[in-house]
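To whoever is covering the structure queue this week,

Two jobs came back overnight. Logging them here so there's a record in the thread.

Job A:
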Amino acid sequence: MKRAPDRNLFNEVVELYYQPLYRFALSLSKREDQASDLTQETFRTFAQHGGELRDKGKVKSWLFTTLYREFLRLYKRSKRLDHYEPAVLEAQLGGSIQSDARRKHDAHLAVEALESVDEIFRAPLSLFYIEDLTYKEIADVLDLPMGTVMSRLSRGKAQLRDAFLNSAKNNSDA
């Protein structure tokens, strides 16, 4: 039976987790419109089923898991329809927009580096670095064993490091 959370809890959850969920969705989809849709769909699902959560301390994990599963569902459907075209991500990862050109440039480089990482490693890296989740929380969100999460983070970090090194080399050559 569907059971919605009370209005106060829903509003509190939206206020607390909208930005982190949106950033995670953006890191996965690489498109602002899809990130918005994924975030909205996650909160719609929470509005319908959030009252069923027995442990309110698991709201964060539940939200990230729901968003990730929705992303996978949409990604698989788009692959079947053969129209998935990742757009170039131009948005910053993080809170408020900074006017400082250096920070924008650094953020752009970080986003490009994250985009260059294999898809299988991108979600764990985003959850770890952007959303500051623990290994256990990442394992719960992605429904993976802890060892797999640790392995994917290790390999993803290596790819990320290589991407930064290549970017630095390319910038010094220019």
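Job B:
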Amino acid sequence: MCFYRGLHCPICARYLTEFQKRVDDFAERGVGTIAVSSDGEERARAMAEKIGATSLRFGYDLSLSKAREWGLYISTSRGKTSIGIEEPALFSEPGLFMVTPEQSLYYGSTQTMPFVRPHFSELVGALDFAIEHNYPARGEYTGDV
């Protein structure tokens, strides 16, 4: 699951373009893909068209309370972006998560800024290693420290 900021974000468009290119790589490893934002349906469709999405699924209308449950950071609007699109009053910052078939978190990355995101090619390589070595999820300890 790739949470993105919204149509207003040019960095998101570039990032999702790369994600679209890797959808088949993830599928070959049994991993489904989706890009999700708090944008409404119209803006989500515009982003899908903008990046030429053919197989990447898009989710929309992510509530900000649900975004917070995922650990995403929330930002306020700064007006129009460099590409001339108005930011929503509130929106979530990026996050990238892999969830197991048992619905537990396997990988998670959240950001406070739109810059410097995990590379999908590296994630595919990490998946190959994890699959080959039956590598467990980390960060699983929840006891006292």
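Note for Job B: The first strand starts at residue 2 and ends at 3.

Please reply-all if you pick these up so we don't duplicate work.
Q.
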